[in-house]
Design brief:
By secondary structure, this protein is mainly alpha-helical. The chain contains two helices and two strands, in the order ββαα. Strand 1 and strand 2 form a beta hairpin.
Length: 89
């Protein structure tokens, strides 16, 4: 069959399927194979969703903390520097 499930989220197409001409009339077996691959991808996505969401939220929280820390450092640095007043000529 032209489709190959590689155990990951992505689906790869076998090399020999690319070389063959596309048959517009799909057989019952090829439709079943495509449906099976689609089902496996959806099952993987369902199983991976909580982990992916937790990783996304952790990365977002880390970015917010880093931004707050850098903002505090910048404001402290600006507070230490005297304000330069330009004299009018």
């Amino acid at each position: 069959m032209g489709w190959h499930w590689n155990g990951m989220l992505s689906i790869t197409i076998c090399h020999d399927a690319v070389l063959r001409r596309w048959n517009p009339i799909m057989t019952n077996q090829s439709l079943k194979s495509r449906a099976d691959v689609h089902f496996k991808v959806r099952e993987f996505q369902k199983a991976d969703a909580p982990v992916a969401r937790a990783e996304y939220e952790a990365a977002s929280a880390a970015t917010r903390e880093k931004t707050a820390r850098l903002r505090a450092l910048r404001l402290a640095r600006e507070a230490e520097q005297p304000v330069k007043v330009k004299k009018k000529r």
